From TrEMBL:
Its EC number is 1.8.7.1. One of its GO terms (molecular function) is sulfite reductase (ferredoxin) activity. This is assimilatory sulfite reductase (ferredoxin). Pfam families: NIR_SIR, NIR_SIR_ferr. Catalyzes the reduction of sulfite to sulfide, a step in the biosynthesis of sulfur-containing amino acids and cofactors. Residues 95-158, 342-405 form the Nitrite/Sulfite reductase ferredoxin-like domain. Residues 1-40 are annotated as: Disordered. The keyword S-adenosyl-L-methionine does not apply. Keywords: 4Fe-4S, Heme, Iron, Iron-sulfur, Metal-binding, Oxidoreductase, Thioether bond. The gene is nirA. It comes from Gandjariella thermophila.
Length: 551
C-alpha cells in the first residue's frame, strides 16, 4: 500500500518539474536554455579574447545577462532610474555598461596581501568602491569589461578569484571567521573548505545546477555562518564515539519562500565533508526542479521529499554507503558577529570591526591591511555580518590597532545600531532593486546613534535591522529583529514613495524563526528612523527580565 504522503510526489513527477534524473529535460526556461547552449564557464575565454578587446557593445546578450555571472560579473543599474520602473523596463534600459564584480573569499579567509590587492584593484579599476557582503565576499563596482582580464590576473596572482561567485553553481563556501583560533571551537572546518574549493569550484560537473547553491561550514558552537539558511551546511557536532565532526543540514534559504535547513541526522567526519558535499550537490543537480526558476532552489526538493528520503537517495544513489547517525548538535549560543577584542586560543587576540552596512572603499581596505601588518598580523577574515576581523594581534598592540581602524571607519566598539544594521546593494547598483539601501542604512545608524544615545547602554544585544532593496532578501529580511523589504508605498500625502514592508521578530540561533509580516505594516523610507526609534524605546520600556526582541 502506498502511504498517503507519497501521493503528491507521484503527481508532481508525472507533470515533471524539470528533474534530470527523472528524464524531464524539456521544455527549457530561458535560463536552462542558456546553460544548455553553452557551459557558462566557457565565457571566460570570450571575455579574455573578444569582449575585453572589442568593448561592451560586442558582448552577446546571453553572455552579458547570463553566463557572466559564473565569473562574478553583473551589469550595474543605470543611475537615475527610480524603483517604480524596475519591473517595467527592459534589461538593456536598466543596465549601465559597467559591472559589479564579486570576489569570492571562501571561508572569509584573507591574507593582508590579498586584502591589499583587492583594495588596489578597487582604487585602480573600480572608482575606489568596495562592499563587504553578508556572504564574506567583497564586491567592487564600476568595472569596465576592458579591465576584467587584468583584474583576474592580479587577483589570481595572490590566490583569489571570481569563478562561480554568482550563477547557478556552488557560490562562496562560508566558513567560521574564527576557524582555527577560537578557544570554544568544536572543530576547524578549514581543510574541508579548501578541499571543496580546490576540487569542485570551476568544475564543469557542477557548473549547471538548477539554481544558486549556498554552502556553510562552521565548527563554531555559535553557528557563525547562518547554517540554518544555506542550501547545505556542516555544523560542528561531537559524536559520542567518534568525537568532533559535523552535523549535516540541507534545504535552508530565504527569498520569497523562506525555509530553515533540516537535519539529516548524519554525522560527518572532517575528511569526508568534501565527498558528502559533492553527493548532496549531485542530488540537487539531478533531482532539483529546473522547470520554474522560483521553485528551483534545493529547499523545494527537501520540503517535498523530507529529510528521510533525501538521506536515503544521497546514501543509496550517490555515496553508495550509509552515513553515520549523529546526535543533534548543541543549540547555538553567543553572539555570532565576532565584533570587538577577544582572546585567541594561542594567547594572541583578534579584533572584529564593523563598517556601516559593509560599505568600505579600496583605500580603506589597503589601509586596513597596512594597519594589520604594522602590528605583525598577516591574516584577516570577513564575516557574514558585513564585518572584518584582524587575527593574531599581540595584546600590547591591541589599543593602537583599534584606534587606527576606528580612524578608518572600522569600529571595534560600534554602537548597537552600527553593529546591528545590515543592508544589501540596493538601488545604487542593483537592477532588481526598488529602493535605496546603503545610504539609508548609514543615515539610519547616524540618526539612531544620536536619538537613542540615552538608552543604548541598556541593550545587552543589538536590535538587528536588515535593509533589503526588493523581495529577494539578500540581506536576510526574514531573520532580523526588524526586517525591511523594499517596495513602493503610499505616504500620508497620497504619493508613491520608497518604503519598506516590515517583518518583525525574526532570528536565528536559539530564536530561529521568520519575522512576522504584519499586514499593512509598512513605513516610508523617510519615516524609518522615527519608526525604529519608537520600536526600540517601546521594547526597552516594556521588556521583561532577559527578554529578547524576537519574543
Ligand atoms: Fe538587489 Fe534585491 Fe538583492 Fe537587494 S535584495 S541586492 S535589491 S536583488
Amino acid at each position: 500500500m502506498v502511504p498517503p504522503t507519497e501521493a503528491p510526489q507521484r503527481t508532481r513527477a508525472r507533470r515533471g518539474e524539470g528533474q534530470w534524473a527523472l528524464g524531464y529535460r524539456e521544455p527549457l526556461n530561458p535560463n536552462e536554455r542558456s546553460k544548455k547552449d553553452d557551459n557558462p564557464l566557457n565565457v571566460r575565454a570570450r571575455i579574455e579574447n573578444i569582449y575585453a578587446h572589442q568593448g561592451f557593445d560586442s558582448i552577446d546578450p546571453a553572455d552579458l545577462r547570463g553566463r557572466f555571472r559564473w565569473y562574478g560579473l553583473y551589469t550595474q543599474r543605470r543611475p537615475g532610474i527610480d524603483g517604480g520602473r524596475t519591473a517595467v523596463l527592459e534589461p538593456e534600459e536598466l543596465e549601465d555598461p559597467y559591472f559589479m564584480m564579486r570576489v569570492r573569499i571562501d571561508g572569509g579567509a584573507l591574507t593582508t596581501e590579498q586584502l591589499r590587492v583587492i583594495g588596489e584593484i578597487s582604487q585602480t579599476f573600480a572608482r575606489d568602491s568596495a562592499d563587504i557582503t553578508d556572504r564574506q565576499n567583497v564586491q567592487l563596482h564600476w568595472i569596465r569589461i576592458e579591465d576584467v582580464p587584468e583584474i583576474w590576473q592580479r587577483l589570481e596572482a595572490v590566490g583569489l578569484y571570481t569563478t562561480e561567485a554568482c550563477g547557478d553553481c556552488p557560490r562562496v563556501v562560508l566558513g567560521s571567521p574564527l576557524a582555527g583560533i577560537a578557544a570554544d571551537e568544536i572543530i576547524d572546518g578549514t581543510p574541508a573548505i579548501r578541499e571543496i574549493a580546490k576540487r569542485y569550484i570551476g568544475d564543469p560537473e557542477f557548473s549547471n545546477l538548477p539554481r544558486k547553491y549556498k554552502t556553510a561550514i562552521s565548527g563554531s558552537p555559535r553557528w557563525d555562518v547562518e547554517p540554518e539558511i544555506n542550501d547545505v551546511s556542516f555544523v560542528g557536532a561531537v559524536h559520542p564515539e567518534h568525537g568532533p565532526g559535523f552535523d549535516l543540514m540541507v534545504g535552508g534559504g530565504l527569498s520569497t519562500n523562506p525555509k530553515l535547513a533540516v537535519r539529516l541526522g548524519a554525522w560527518v567526519p572532517l575528511d569526508e565533508v568534501a565527498e558528502v558535499w559533492a553527493g548532496v550537490t549531485r542530488v540537487f543537480r539531478d533531482y532539483g526542479y529546473r522547470r520554474l526558476r522560483h521553485r528551483a532552489r534545493l529547499k523545494f526538493l527537501v520540503t517535498d521529499w523530507g529529510a528521510e528520503k533525501f538521506r536515503e537517495v544521497l546514501e543509496n544513489e550517490y555515496l553508495h554507503r550509509k552515513l553515520i547517525d549523529g546526535p543533534a548538535p548543541n543549540p547555538p549560543e553567543g553572539q555570532r558577529d565576532h565584533i570587538g577584542v577577544h582572546p585567541q586560543v594561542d594567547g594572541k587576540f583578534y579584533v572584529g570591526v564593523k563598517p556601516v552596512a559593509g560599505r568600505v572603499s579600496g583605500a580603506t581596505l589597503v589601509a586596513a591591511a597596512k594597519a594589520a601588518e604594522r602590528v605583525g598580523s598577516q591574516r584577516l577574515r570577513t564575516t557574514v555580518h558585513q564585518g572584518l576581523i584582524v587575527l593574531d594581534v599581540d595584546e600590547a598592540d591591541v589599543p593602537s590597532l583599534v584606534h587606527e581602524l576606528s580612524g578608518l571607519g572600522l569600529a571595534a566598539e560600534p554602537s548597537p545600531w552600527r553593529r546591528g544594521v545590515m543592508a544589501c546593494t540596493g538601488i545604487e547598483f542593483c537592477k532588481l532593486a526598488i529602493v535605496e539601501t546603503k545610504a539609508r542604512a548609514a543615515n539610519l545608524v547616524a540618526e539612531l546613534e544620536q536619538r537613542l544615545a540615552d538608552v543604548q547602554a541598556r541593550l545587552d544585544r543589538p536590535i538587528t535591522v536588515n535593509l533589503n532593496g526588493c523581495p529577494n532578501a539578500c540581506a536576510r529580511t526574514q531573520v532580523a529583529d526588524i526586517g525591511l523589504k523594499g517596495q513602493i508605498v503610499t505616504n500620508d500625502a497620497g504619493e508613491q514613495v520608497e518604503g519598506f514592508q516590515v517583518h518583525l521578530g525574526g532570528g536565528l540561533a536559539a530564536d530561529a524563526g521568520f519575522g512576522r509580516k504584519v499586514r499593512g505594516l509598512k513605513v516610508t523610507a523617510d519615516e524609518l528612523p522615527d519608526y525604529v526609534e519608537r520600536l526600540a524605546r517601546r521594547f526597552l520600556e516594556q521588556r521583561t527580565e532577559g527578554e529578547r526582541f524576537a519574543h
